Amino acid sequence: KKPNIVMFGADPYGRDLAPRMAADLVCGVTADVTELSVEPETKLVVWSRPAMGGNIMADIVSPDFRPQVGTVRAGTFRYPTYDESRIGEIIDVPVQLGLEDFGTLLKEILPEISDDNPVEEASVIVSGGRGIHSEKEWVQLHELAELLGASVGCSRPIAELGWEKQSHQIGQTGKGVSPKVYFAFGISGAMQHLCAVKADVLIAVNRDAKAPIMETADYAVIADLKTFLPLFIEKIKMIKSEKQ
Q: 165-180: per-residue pLDDT in tens?
């Protein structure tokens, strides 16, 4: 087919297959891409990803070797509007493999614990960071998420404390998300976190008015979470009760 670009999802399969394919074809591969664009003049793909511990965004191009290969994080792009005029073709390529083709013998598959509301698929996310100081406050975040029909996300420190499962960590070392609404409670807004958030509306609640996320947010609320969260939950309950 001699493609110009080969793109994989940055899931366990893509992360395993992309570098193997690139090595066989003697071309580069850009891993864990969070943004994509095309140079108008050269038509080269610009693969953008966090680098230097998430402190910068690196733009990577491949001017000399083909195909251009990259793995793209799930949740990086918003769902596009359906367009009936666009037509694509799916080509199935049958592959026949025997046991002699594998260097590893699969003995057992351990089923993954199912996630009823994964953050990478959620349209509304209620997320919290180190501005939440106790598990009791964290339970309130789950209560709010249930009221809003939202998924609960977290920054890395919360996952490391064990208050939230690792699969709900959002950021450079976690998941990428593209919700319609993203609530950020007590999240400072470091690049390592925000590079993975592509929300239509970002609502930040933080007692530090100078936190970086307050400048990025569409709506910024300066408040102490200890008092704000209970009041906000009661207000949502009241609104839902009135609608019923």
A: 888 999 888 888 989 9
Tell me the two tokens of residue 174: 């976690």
DSSP 25-91: HT--EEEEE-EEEE-TTT--EEEEEEETTTTEEEEE--SSSSSEEEEE-TT-SPPPPP-TT------
Parallel/antiparallel/unpaired status of strands 45-51 and 56-60: antiparallel
Contacts of 133 (CB under 8 A, 6+ apart): none
Instruction: Go through the chain and tell me how many residues it has.
Output: 244
What percent of the chain lies above the pLDDT cut of 90? 36
Q: In what order do the strands lie in the sheet with 5-9?
A: 5-9, 68-72, 29-33
- For the whole model, what pTM was predicted? 0.61
3-state secondary structure at position 117: coil
